[in-house]
Amino acid sequence: xxxxxxxxxxxxxxxxxxxxxxxxxxxxxxxxxxxxxxxxxxxxxxxxxxxxxxxxxxxxxxxxxxxxxxxxxxxxxxxxxxxxxxxxxxxxxxxxxxxxxxxxxxxxxxxxxxxxxxxxxxxxxxxxxxxxxxxxxxxxxxxxxxxxxxxxxxxxxxxxxxxxxxxxxxxxxxxxxxxxxxxxxxxxxxxxxxxxxxxxxxxxxxxxxxxxxxxxxxxxxxxxxxxxxxxxxxxxxxxxxxxxxxxxxxxxxxxxxxxxxxxxxxxxxxxxxxxxxxxxxxxxxxxxxxxxxxxxxxxxxxxxxxxxxxxxxxxxxxxxxxxxxxxxxxxxxxxxxxxxxxxxxxxxxxxxxxxxxxxxxxxxxxxxxxxxxxxxxxxxxxxxxxxxxxxxxxxxxx
Length: 398
Fold this sequence. Notes:
Largest sheet: 16 strands, antiparallel
Helix content: 10-25%
Strand order of the largest sheet: 1-2-3-4-5-6-7-8-9-10-11-14-15-16-17-18
Structural class: alpha+beta
Shape: globular
Low-confidence stretches: none
């Protein structure tokens, strides 16, 4: 009992001594603790990005997001042109308005130049305005004949196109989008520069409608749908459901026609977008079977963005169907994706024949180098019934 009383008296003495400590001493001790914590915090060095990371971030900012001045331009002059190099020069003359001149040249001497102006975010960020004038020269465009069973015997033609026009894209609310535009398109068809036979030496007006003519069109396009992708050029989630109407009014009133496109894109992310299932469907249909559509403007399949194991323009006819599925994974979120894909589709002369039977198909694997809003380089290897095909593209697959 005496031992317990002594312990209690000792504790009370300690408490009394603490209570008797001057307030100034307590403040000094608190200041010392705060100073020590500040010193330790200052010694903690924030993580610095590596040289590679700084280089990638700078490239993405300067060349992909909002380039100002000179920049590399990744695109295709016309499908089938082969490896292409390009550059552009852009200057802003408003917060969201710029003019842009860009050009491309391909290994097959395909050429392209365009002057454009774009103004974004009007009417409380609901309206975008675009206008452009340009010219392209595709020196060796392929034509294999009409239909899904056309022979694998290629002929070529040279296509020159001059154009001027513009469009307006509106987002009235939510994810809804509407686009309206008009372009004057003047086509000139000539003998190709390559070694393949010229279309006009092999085909007739019955087997290649519009052969021998070079029409000029007022091309009007109106579209509407919903689009909740982060960007059309690169997305890991979201989707697009859109209908587009095209009217090609021939200046000579001979080869006028109407076409409707229906497109669906759906990205389904898995495990915080480390994996993505991406689906794409596209139907193109000529509305009136009595309209004469020039062979080079018919819906087509075969290219780096349709049936990827088949050469560009492999199949053409009045109606087309394309279905694509991809399993994408992201080994490096900074700028690298990979994908396994499966494409299938067909072209037919009549709408009633547009079914899921007798589809051409291919399977493949690809790698994509991308920014937050664009895919400047896509390399893919696809296998189909006509063999292997290597794809180099300067845009997203869909």
